[in-house]
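hey so u asked for the seq, here:
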Amino acid sequence: MSSSPHASPPTPIARAVAQPWQGFVSYLTPQRVLLALALATVAALVLDPIFITPFPVLLGRTMFVGMLALLAFSAAGQWPRRLPRWWARWLFQVVVVAAAVPVATLVVYLVAVGGDLASLVQSEARMMGFMWIAGSGLVVGPLLAMGALYRQRDAEARNQALSFELERSELERQALDARLRLLQAQVEPHFLFNTLANVRALVETGSPQAAPVLRSLIAYLRAAMPRLQGESTTLADEVSLVQAYLELMHLRMPDRLSYSVDLSPALSGLRFPPMALLTLVENAVRHGIDPGEDGGRIDVGGELLDGQVRLWVSDTGVGMTQDMGAGTGLRNLRERLTLFYGLSAGLTLTENQPHGLRADIRFTPH
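ran it, structure tokens below
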């Protein structure tokens, strides 16, 4: 039986053992090691006039004490894993560093005397050296430990604040996406029901246009339905829907509606909220062309000017009515444009002369 080539995942016990060691090693950053060695060098230079010991030997002793204090500081940050509630981790680390300094100094001098503790105690010069090195370490070591802990706590606070900010931004983005989908869901039934009502009116009046209009509606829906649920489409997709809708309306009232669609090819690939332009075209048909006895013309266009996209739907219908701009469709459209493009997007309605209405969308592409 052959063994699996894949290594088995670490057990919970192995992970529990590995995590403290990883934390211990993470404390021993190059910056902290270099700082400990630099301070040991400074201490050796300051103490050198007092000692008769050669400077290289003194430097080795201070470096040993400094590195052992750093190792104690790192170890106390991980072990023991749990401390009493009344004893904070940072205080434990400072106390361990303060205890490690005299212990490390004692080890250095025991090595120097070959482990003869009595010889060390009886030598006044060695005891003075021990006191000077241990005393210097007891002053500098805990202060440096508290400084390192303060910087670490400050870095953790900044990282947590950054994490909260990223989480807040993600929640805001999800809320905007949900709001955009809600507004889009309100628009889709509005458009479909209006179109179906137009077809029903033709059927009820026995118009010979009913069958061609119904065929055009089926073709339109086949093209439109896959896009209705999309969060975004391109402007070229939107223009194709507008053309299909205008063709549908032209079949319904061939003598009362003419139209043109002229969009710069440079705008075709831009992201665009689904059915935004179609909402304006539908409003032009319902509120501008339909109410007028002579019908009218609808012109749809767009261009990129000074880094800003401008789209327009202009009709020669009855013009602006008193409640124009207050309907659900236009209100939702303004909000969708703001959610999609930001505050730089806008929708304005102006009267055409001698009659009619022009709707302009402006936004900065992204």
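The chain has two domains: 12-169, 207-363. The two ends are 59 Å apart (CA to CA).
lmk if thats what u needed
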